[in-house]
Design goal:
This protein has a single domain (12-176), classed as Nucleotidyltransferase, domain 5 (2-Layer Sandwich). The protein has helices at 26-31, 65-78, 92-101, 150-162, 177-193, 204-207, 217-223; strands at residues 12-22, 40-49, 55-61, 84-87, 107-115, 130-139. A six-stranded mixed sheet has the order 3-2-1-4-5-6, with helices on both faces. By secondary structure, the chain is an alpha/beta fold.
């Protein structure tokens, strides 16, 4: 993806991060006194272009400022010129987007969702009730009508449906960080170049002009 998705001209980008874990959850890790960085919570950062549905960049890491910067640097390499970018309310995005993308003249806004209770509580598995959203311009001059994370959140659902490792309440979770990383790399390439998007009727890569045909699994495996 880094070889083929580089310096693209885009209009609207949406970013989000999806929770998962490797080996065990953080509370189990703490109880067992484990301090390895390759087990515990693992977040997949994703940036999607709204119109083509192309995944521009992704990053597997922790929900930290360092990993957020690493993700936005990948997004900067994948794009060129100005565009509007929307993220959720995760605070490290504010510095990371400005640090890595300000020179491109991006317009940056955050969509902060207000929940009735803590959405990350491990004591519940149903989604917390969202009682409102706040659109917050952060940098540049973003169009308020285009401040949205709906498309990247829908992609996250597709990702959970297609990847058994991310299915909740099962024993199918990844046991090794390297295996999860490899599966994510395979998934995103398959999503962009092989899978036909139901709305577009073509693959995101075809919609974005990166290829003129549907890739086969054989072609995908030859590349990776």
């Amino acid at each position: 993806m880094e070889e083929r998705i580089h310096g693209l001209r885009v209009k609207e980008v949406q970013c989000d991060e999806m929770w998962g874990y490797v080996g065990m959850k953080e509370k189990t890790k703490a109880r067992k006194g484990r301090d390895e960085t390759t087990i515990g919570y693992a977040y997949t950062f994703v940036a999607i272009e709204r119109h083509s549905k192309l995944v521009l960049a992704w990053h597997l890491g922790r929900r930290t400022e360092r990993d957020t910067v690493a993700f936005t640097e990948k997004l900067a390499a994948a794009t060129e010129g100005s565009f509007q970018v929307t993220t959720d309310g995760f605070s490290p995005y504010k510095d990371a987007i400005v640090l890595t993308l300000a020179a491109q003249g991006v317009d940056f806004a955050q969509l902060v969702k207000v929940y009735a209770s803590n959405p990350e509580s491990e004591t519940r598995y149903s989604p917390a009730d969202c009682i409102g959203c706040k659109k917050t311009p952060v940098f540049g001059d973003p169009d308020r009508a285009k401040i949205s994370t709906s498309h990247v959140e829908r992609q996250n659902l597709t990702m959970r449906m297609q990847m058994r490792r991310l299915t909740r309440l099962t024993n199918a979770f990844s046991k090794k960080w390297e295996k999860l990383y490899a599966m994510l790399a395979l998934y995103f390439t398959w999503y962009n170049f092989v899978r036909v998007h139901q709305t577009l009727r073509v693959t995101p890569a075809m919609e974005a002009g990166l290829t003129d045909h549907f890739w086969t699994i054989t072609e995908l495996l030859r590349v990776v």
